[in-house]
Amino acid sequence: MADIGVIGAGSWGTALAMLLCENGHEVVLWAHRKEKVEQMRATGTCDKLPQITLPEKMCYTESIQEAVMGKELIVLAVSSTATRSTVQRMKPFVKSSQIVCSVSKGIEEGTLLTQCGIIEDVLGTYQLVGVLSGPSHAEEVVQKLPTVVVAGAKEEKVATFLQDCFMNEVFRVYTSSDVVGIEIGASLKNVIALAAGMSDGLGYGDNTKAALITRGIREISGLALAMGGNPETLSGLAGTGDLIVTCSSKHSRNRRAGMLIGQGSKPDAAMREVKMVVEGVHSAKAALALGEKYHVTLPIIEQVNGVLFEGKDPKTAVRTLMEREKKAEI
């Protein structure tokens, strides 16, 4: 059994900490607010997942040093916009022998780095870095509903270690060496899910949603391939699987924000109403910039940016997509 620190006590970090604890590992969950740590200790509950009871043997801390130092595995579960600052806080206590696993999804605006890229940028490329991704809403994981994900790492031993740590009878984990493909799929699917939510908010139907998912995975695959990823990854759990669930699920914050925008809310108001970090909004500009850098056309993502940052009406954005020049599908 491993000694594990989970950094981030949001819904996903808490759900994974519970899973790891129930798998028999020694787990400490870090939250940046002392009052949240005290609340979890005292009540055995989490405000983000009020329907569940936390394992009795799980530990909690607001000390980043305690959560990181000496751990075999560090699971980084903060929002993507907080990854760099959090890893910088971790850096004095991290050794090169420790595995750092990102479970967040997003691209950093400005640097255009993925989450693993940020970790390597701060800690050094010598660090053992992995990623866990796939169709996996925290609300269903804590209910022990069957869930299947993929663990990716450049080194096979890291991916296999993650598989061994996380996998159980209701949480199946595959391995992959395609970190780029996994992370591009994870990040861009949130942008496409915003578009799917806008479609729902506009009152469009299943035909529209299916088209967005299908053409969305085409955009994501094209960019991943240009960046050195394997297009087969995008037909798997980290691509098609995660895109389907994020575009369709009642648990999806990106779909929910998009739906509110489609119904007439301004983007800022929609994000406030969702009351959670909407990762797709933060990745949208960076995704478009990556497309420009690698000369990949991303029409859906381009229109999402127009709605989010240029005041474009969602109906007009849909019409722009429908009226693009005629072309072959493949």
Write up this protein:
The chain is an alpha/beta fold. It is built from 16 helices and eight strands. The protein has helices at 11-22, 34-43, 64-68, 83-90, 115-123, 138-141, 156-166, 179-201, 206-226, 231-234, 237-248, 253-262, 267-274, 279-293, 299-309, 314-322, and strands spanning 3-7, 26-30, 59-61, 73-76, 99-102, 128-133, 147-153, 171-176. The chain has an eight-stranded mixed beta sheet with strand order 3-2-1-4-5-6-7-8, sandwiched between helices. The chain starts with a strand and ends in an 8-residue tail after the last helix. The mean pLDDT is 95.
Uncertain segments: none
Cα gyration radius (Å):
19 Å
Alpha-beta classification: alpha/beta
Tell me, briefly, the overall form: globular
Distance between the termini: 48 Å
Major beta sheet, strand line-up: 3-2-1-4-5-6-7-8
Overall average pLDDT? 95
Largest sheet: 8 strands, mixed
Along the chain, the helix and strand elements come as: EHEHEHEHEHEHEHEHHHHHHHHH
Helix percentage = 40-55%
